Amino acid sequence: MSLPLVRQATTGNRNVLLRQYTKANSLSLRQRLATTTLPFDRRCASTQLTRSISSTPSALSAASALAETPHHPSKVSYDGKHIILPNPSRPAFKQAAKVLPSGISEQFAILNACIQTGAMDRAERIMNELYRNRTEEMKIFVDAQIFNTFLNGFVQGNKPQANDCLAWFDRMVSYGITPDANTYAILVKGFLKMGSYHTARMLLQDMRKNTNNQMMDVVKSDFLAPNEVKGFRQLITESQNSNQVEVQELLRELELAADNVLGSESSSTVADKNTRTSPAVIAPTTIYENIPEARPMDAIGVKFLQEQLSALQNSEEALKMDPFDLQMALEKQGYEVALQRLVHMREASKERGDTLNALHLSPLKKNMWDWHEKVIPLLKEEIEKCVNIKGKDVERRSYGPFLTLLPVEKLSIITILELLRLHNSSGIADGMKTARAVIDVGKAVEMEYNATYMKRNNKGLRGGYNIQNMSANGKEFNMAVQKALNKQQEDEAATEASISMDNKNDGVQSSDIWNPVWPSSIRAKVGSVLTSLLIESAKIPVPSYNPDTGEKITEHIPAFFHTYQYVRGKRVGIIKFSDQLTQLVSKEPLRDTLHPRLMPMIVHPRPWLHYNDGGYLTAKSICMRIKDSPEQQIYLHKASENAKIDHVLKGLDVLGSTKWRVNKNVFDVVLEAWNSGEAVADIPPAITEAIRLPEKPSDYDTDPKAKFHWVNKVKEIQNMEKNYHSLRCDVNYKVETARAFLNLPMYFPHNMDFRGRAYPIPPTLNHLGNDLCRGLLCFDEAKPLGESGWRWLKIHMANLYGYDKHSFTERERFTVENMDNILDSVDNPMTGQKWWLQAEAPWQCLSACYEVAAAVRSGNPLEFESRLPVHQDGTCNGLQHYAALGGDMAGARAVNLAPGDRPADVYTGVADLVNKLVEQEAEEGNEDAILLKGKISRKVVKQTVMTNVYGVTFIGARAQIENRLKERGDIPQERVYSLASYLAKKVFSSLGEMFNGAQNIQDWLTDSARRIARSVPKDTLQETGILPFDSPEQEQRFLARVENEKMKSRKNGKKVTKTFSARNPSANQMTSVIWTTPLGLPIVQPYRRTGKKQVTTLLQTVFIEDPDLSRPVNAMKQSTAFPPNFIHSLDATHMLMSAVACYEKGLTFASVHDSYWTHACCVDDMNEVIRDQFIELHSQPIMENLHAEFMERYKDYRLPNSEEVDQTDKAVTKTKKRASSSKSAKSAATAASPVSAENEALFGLADMQLDEENGDEDDDDLDLDLVNNDVKADEDDKTSSSKKYRYNWVELAFAPLPKKGEFDINQVKDSDYFFH
Amino acid sequence: MSSVRSSLVPKIPTFETWSKQFRGKTPRNLPRCTIADVETAEIGFKRLRQHTKWTNVQLAELTAVEIYPGLGVWTSALFNGGFNSIYSLEPNVPYYKQIKSLADKSEGVIRPLKKDGYDWETYVELKDKAYLGSLMTRAWNKVNQNIFFTGTLPKSSKGEQLLAQFATCIVNKMALHSMGRIPMALWIPDQLYEKFTASRGSKARCKMSVVTEACAEIDLIYSTQSNAMYPKELYHLVYILPRPIVKIKADWDVFEYVLKHLFVMQRFSLNKVVRTLGPGADIILDRLSFDTNIQICDMTAEQIDQVAIKFDQWPLRPQVLIEDSNPRSLE
DNA sequence: CTTGTATGTAGTGATATAAGTAATAGAAAATCA
DNA sequence: GGATTTTCTACCGACAATATCACTACATACTCG
């Protein structure tokens, strides 16, 4: 019963984290605090593990104030508390989700850009146009937040237009938007700035009289900078002479509020504070105009940056710096740093003035600087054109406002670095897809804008760092924070100034301020401008000659160029590197082109406060990787809002709190290997000379076939070369990232995929990466091994070598016996026996070698301080969950849920079983079997067994096995195909035999998902006239709405109503499969038909998903992907639960989905946690809960059904080919589908007859019919001459759950090899 | 020497029976169209003969190779026309049987071969002495007097691909045209005909029509009327005479690369599109002899050839012109 | 001054593009008549 | 509504076709009564 405890503990702990990061007046935060600042005794979590605790009031309310059914203390799920929203096809969904139509979201983004850049005339025009053309939508989507931001635009700059502001305020009211405290704050601010104290006072009086807004909220408004609040004081001074009682009252309130915000002593600091912030009041454009060409930063900024610069180059230096400042700087000024590095290099060599050093200057950097200088004037020119648009230049109008959001220097460096980063992406040799490039550049601009101007986090962080006790690994963090605070106090002025330098908003940034996400189309447009300008200006001088005259010339070759390729007959726009640029890039380490964003963090990531608030200090990130699916986003949002995902977020926080460092020993070897240019482990060799092309065959010139084959060979070679190259690039990036962090700690902020599986956000170097990455990383914290740790280290060593199918004792012995090899690997990694290179995971093995060797040589291994993460891996984790769900005895044994002396290996098990079958058939004379006899190894079946969990089909499995058989080479090539077919069948049937329970559950999941994806809400059917309305009132309401819509869309009244019938429902299938994990995370399968549109950009049109199009689901994908997704959502749940539990026990924890890592000495503890959590998870009726959730979620949904009508006109209900379809090719090869089998048994006797007249509705038994498939009737029908089908809609229901087996989940507790 | 042959009349099934028995059920040879009207074939041949001015003597020297004879209506017309011999290449079994039965009545003139005109090997095999080997000619200044290539192209992507390959093969003297300057007459579906023969500026202008323009003279001989084809389709009989001197002087691979890239944006001016050939490729604009402010679709084959030549000569041109368009997934 | 008409254009949907789809089969969804 | 043709064929991390033409709805200009 540890789970409720965990829950409580987590909540309590979140509380601590929260307070640190919390800004008191955030609305959403207030809600969160309400659930978290409950009485809570920390000691409970750490010491008394009492059973009753889950029913204590504090635990209950801490878990969730909303949980109303706490009667089953062991349950994790909040029964009946799933987030349920209307079907996306329903108008109600649009209301709830507020999914902006693409046209509107574009306009909004532009509007915001205009506001932020002070182009209020343009902003007004957009506002007017929107209200004129999209009145209805504006009513739905515009709220006070948007309007406030708009109003604020008028009074923001140094020329406040308070009167315009007031006029729009009136319109705001007339549009039915209720002004809030922020609104008044903005208005008052405007008039104060203009010195109209009277009006300001009138406004406040009006507010007091006519609204409920509080003076305190006004003064605390995010739209007010501290110095502006001081303006309010001015108001008090100015109004002293008034005698009116009301005014006096007002002033008192105001004074109180101002004191509260500023502190009562603040009046003394007014003067100097004002001077400090005053530069920011200057209009943005003027700021940047004054910047000297080569130095985009002002004096303080440069100093600051150069500090970081040297820090980055010399990580020893970095250690001396305050990590918080460094992290802040990395995030906020990553691009400046990158730019400064270019400047710095250049200036340094210039100063020295010698050509010798100029030669040493990297040519790539020299070129980058050159491009940078050349693109800036072009950018300025373009911006100029955008400002003075003549006529209707639609394109410029849509991207123009965005170009002034950032200084041109930044735009330039962003573009350069983005394009360099995308080198070799999307499988393009020496280039990238244009679409990807322009969108990513646009996105980078957006992110940089957010990072630079979103001050809220900064404010919150600084202010929120109070010194509190944190748990084990939080301590260091706090020390850092403390240091940061101290430093801040000493050094405040400088730091503040350097940050506020690029802050155009008077320091006003917060969550109350509207900041719409840029739609992809906008990103693409913005990105395309920058990209095309860079293409135009980035050139590399190359000596050449004129072939006609022989004259020697220098050509200026564009570094990038835009071109097209055909991929299977379709045009794809690409941006390619010129050969010259490729040369430059491949010749030098990517150190200085390293992309500054999304690096590992050097301080503790910000805890996730909200689904979209956490991770990096400044970057706006989201805790889930959403696929173009508004539905996913809205469910996540709602869940977050209702505090449903706190546990999940806490889990992510734990993962992010693990502190890493680079393993220097391994790094040195990697570097040596890298520089040798040879192939070592997974590092590919450097290609020194171009691979020779094959000889052209003699008939090359006469036979197209010969030519074709030759070309293909060449393509293959090129492809290989390309792969090598991009692999080397990849290693290069990893090595450089590691180098940058050599002496720094690293944290990986985590987020999840849509199923809840966690991933580190930094992409290049993280512990989820390949062997090299993992080898390069180890925990920052060291812990003494102790007896058990030493044992586990040895076992781990064996595991990494590949000796992992034996008992622990044997593995331990393996390491001991190989001690000479281990020591040799450490002493002569590149010159010795290179034992480690033969390991399955060489780099990790090497890393372990160092650890083992150091432990041994320390004299006393037990006291050795170890940093190496030791892994415990689930054995076929997917099958483990299946077996647990099904209570499947045999399955449980096969995947080590049940205890055993040595690890059971599924793959070997299946291989053995298949071998047995084959031998049997070989004796019967089956030719295939004879050929295959004795050749079925573990390796042959492994992939298929593994992918079986993912729902691989027969075809896929056959292809896999075919490849394996081909590799063997001892089978005649021409037979491989048919043998693979044969074998695939055998593997499936063996799997079916071994994992019958899993199979049944998988089939049930597939079947249920299929039904859901094909279903339609009843309302829709009623409105399309297929089903009658429940009541006349309902009909009335509907008709009224239709009338209303007609009025609205009278303009484009070409509403094409698609044919809608039970027979062909696919166009209207809008229901995706949604479920809630036991930790409360709602999961929405995003698979829908793509609705892409062409978007015009400067370079080319780009094909982009149109988000507002609500598209029908891809029912097939929904159903086939559901089982793996569901299982993954469970293993993610298990992992997060374990992570939190480990954290509570003070263990360092990391995971790669189903591989859990901790310090060697903690493995025993972690193992207990893993098992406890697994038992906890699976003690719940997960399947029953899922079934119940589906019933609730899809209540009143209808399923299209076709039934056969026989001649006697009596409906014999059965699904035509439907019920049997759930057993696809795969399960057809195995036992009969459990669904139909079950139902045959259960309902075979039920009366299948149905009165056809009211068969459409109200018949509760219909769901049974769906499932049942009467074989005999089928046969009869074959003989009958006339087949008639009737299509109708039945209530959505699900097959009965497969029966659960006898396996007792608690056995896991005693299974040593469950994770091993 | 017998110009008086007993005329051969093919059996033509009704459309319904054709649908059942001949129309390929497999998607492999999906939209195979076949001439189903004797008169169409006869008139077609008559017009063709007028156009080529073949004498009886010449015809008696000519061996025809016919691909996709289908029901054999065109085969019969050729037979009746007096060819020396006719290799009729039909891979599809029901059709092949039909041709076989015609052949049996042709005194050995019609020689059915179960080969596919689409397969490259077919042309290697035809080169064998037993078939056309002895009739090969080296010289391109003279038309090969002994081989004539004809047939009905399928209305499918394969048909289109095949036609395009004929054109490239003419340019490079490959496959069939490694056996000499062989004239061809093909029945081509309407859409394909439009593309094949599109002249500069036309909306249907495409890569194929440029190559065609460069390597052959095309003449429309005859078009099918209403129900002449199974299934009902508009087809054109086209006479294709390879030019003695092909207008493409550039290396073929370079030419193809240039052509492919230029035609991505055929309504843009060369000035702009030339940049997509390679980084800095606009330097070759000055080296061209014509006004480069010209839409791609308005360019002649010679002009494109010139671009290709200058591109080839450009010292900094990209060295790799083979683009890997198939990103094959790794395991 | 109004109204009608011609003209221009932004937006939308359809279509072609390349080309040996190296092999295999079978069910489900989409399209067609 | 029945038959035929096309489209898949393993989950997630990590996405991404584009130029051109025909057509329509709408706005603007211009002209005439």
Automatic annotation (TrEMBL), chain A:
<dbReference type="GO" id="GO:0006390">
    <property type="term" value="P:mitochondrial transcription"/>
</dbReference>
<keyword id="KW-0548">Nucleotidyltransferase</keyword>
<dbReference type="Pfam" id="PF00940">
    <property type="entry name" value="RNA_pol"/>
</dbReference>
<feature type="compositionally biased region" description="Low complexity">
    <location>
        <begin position="1221"/>
        <end position="1233"/>
    </location>
</feature>
<keyword id="KW-0809">Transit peptide</keyword>
<protein>
    <recommendedName>
        <fullName>DNA-directed RNA polymerase</fullName>
        <ecNumber>2.7.7.6</ecNumber>
    </recommendedName>
</protein>
<feature type="repeat" description="PPR">
    <location>
        <begin position="143"/>
        <end position="179"/>
    </location>
</feature>
<dbReference type="InterPro" id="IPR046950">
    <property type="entry name" value="DNA-dir_Rpol_C_phage-type"/>
</dbReference>
<dbReference type="GO" id="GO:0003899">
    <property type="term" value="F:DNA-directed RNA polymerase activity"/>
</dbReference>
<dbReference type="Pfam" id="PF13041">
    <property type="entry name" value="PPR_2"/>
</dbReference>
<feature type="domain" description="DNA-directed RNA polymerase N-terminal">
    <location>
        <begin position="325"/>
        <end position="657"/>
    </location>
</feature>
<dbReference type="InterPro" id="IPR024075">
    <property type="entry name" value="DNA-dir_RNA_pol_helix_hairp_sf"/>
</dbReference>
<dbReference type="InterPro" id="IPR002092">
    <property type="entry name" value="DNA-dir_Rpol_phage-type"/>
</dbReference>
<comment type="function">
    <text>DNA-dependent RNA polymerase catalyzes the transcription of DNA into RNA using the four ribonucleoside triphosphates as substrates.</text>
</comment>
<keyword id="KW-0808">Transferase</keyword>
<dbReference type="Pfam" id="PF14700">
    <property type="entry name" value="RPOL_N"/>
</dbReference>
<keyword id="KW-0804">Transcription</keyword>
<dbReference type="InterPro" id="IPR011990">
    <property type="entry name" value="TPR-like_helical_dom_sf"/>
</dbReference>
<feature type="repeat" description="PPR">
    <location>
        <begin position="180"/>
        <end position="210"/>
    </location>
</feature>
<dbReference type="InterPro" id="IPR043502">
    <property type="entry name" value="DNA/RNA_pol_sf"/>
</dbReference>
<dbReference type="InterPro" id="IPR037159">
    <property type="entry name" value="RNA_POL_N_sf"/>
</dbReference>
<dbReference type="GO" id="GO:0001018">
    <property type="term" value="F:mitochondrial promoter sequence-specific DNA binding"/>
</dbReference>
UniProtKB/TrEMBL annotation, chain B:
<dbReference type="GO" id="GO:0006364">
    <property type="term" value="P:rRNA processing"/>
</dbReference>
<dbReference type="GO" id="GO:0005759">
    <property type="term" value="C:mitochondrial matrix"/>
</dbReference>
<dbReference type="GO" id="GO:0034245">
    <property type="term" value="C:mitochondrial DNA-directed RNA polymerase complex"/>
</dbReference>
<keyword id="KW-0694">RNA-binding</keyword>
<comment type="similarity">
    <text>Belongs to the class I-like SAM-binding methyltransferase superfamily. rRNA adenine N(6)-methyltransferase family.</text>
</comment>
<dbReference type="InterPro" id="IPR001737">
    <property type="entry name" value="KsgA/Erm"/>
</dbReference>
<keyword id="KW-0698">rRNA processing</keyword>
<dbReference type="Pfam" id="PF00398">
    <property type="entry name" value="RrnaAD"/>
</dbReference>
<dbReference type="GO" id="GO:0032259">
    <property type="term" value="P:methylation"/>
</dbReference>
<dbReference type="GO" id="GO:0006391">
    <property type="term" value="P:transcription initiation at mitochondrial promoter"/>
</dbReference>
<dbReference type="GO" id="GO:0008168">
    <property type="term" value="F:methyltransferase activity"/>
</dbReference>
<keyword id="KW-0489">Methyltransferase</keyword>
<dbReference type="GO" id="GO:0003723">
    <property type="term" value="F:RNA binding"/>
</dbReference>
<keyword id="KW-0949">S-adenosyl-L-methionine</keyword>
<dbReference type="InterPro" id="IPR029063">
    <property type="entry name" value="SAM-dependent_MTases_sf"/>
</dbReference>
<keyword id="KW-0808">Transferase</keyword>
<dbReference type="GO" id="GO:0034246">
    <property type="term" value="F:mitochondrial transcription factor activity"/>
</dbReference>
<protein>
    <recommendedName>
        <fullName>rRNA adenine N(6)-methyltransferase</fullName>
        <ecNumber>2.1.1.-</ecNumber>
    </recommendedName>
</protein>
